[in-house]
Hints:
The complex is a heterodimer. By secondary structure, chain A is mostly helical. Chain A has one domain (2-85). Chain A is built from three helices and no strands. In chain A, helix 1 packs antiparallel against helix 2 and helix 2 (29-54) packs antiparallel against helix 3. The termini of chain A are far apart. The relative contact order of chain A is 0.13. By secondary structure, chain B is an all-alpha fold.
Amino acid sequence: METYFLYLTVIVTIIIFIPFYRVLAGPTLYDRLLAAGSIGTKTTVLILFIGMVFNRLDMFIDITMAYAILNFIGTVAIAKYLNSRGNN
Amino acid sequence: MELAMHIIAGIVIIAGAFFLFAAGLGIIRFPDFYCRAHAQGKADTLGIMLIIFGLVITQGVSINSAKLLIIIGFVALAGPTATNALLGAAFKFRLKPWFKKEHLTGNTNEVTKEEKD
């Protein structure tokens, strides 16, 4: 079971590097923010897999909840800031 | 019974990883920001929900699976909301959507055919 989740951790890490291209080479600011949010949500899954590898899922679930909430608040706050900037 | 549950959980988790891969591919390959937001807001959220649901199946009935179900509900609400906030900011900034050139200048293919005749 641990080896299975170890392989899944490697696969998800490779998947996380796909939107990183859009963060580096995005034409607009919004593309970069979107890809950064995508990386954040995928990291949620990565932390859960690491918890399954270490057999301490009860501890890592709380970290996952905090990370998901932080990622959501960060994206919405930046979107609100850009929204207020668009008025001028 | 245990083995069957683990096999079902493995299939669900692999399906979720496929949807995460599809979302990443969409973010790279789609032509403009609105299409990319479409890929990220739906495929990404579905993939994460499927993977966490697979973990719920491996945990059985316990406090861990209850917490994981709470995370599923939060992700289902938060992912599309964050994408929608970004889309609203981009639309207010008047980011131009992507069109095929035929839609802007009329159907050019038919015109060239008539000219050839």
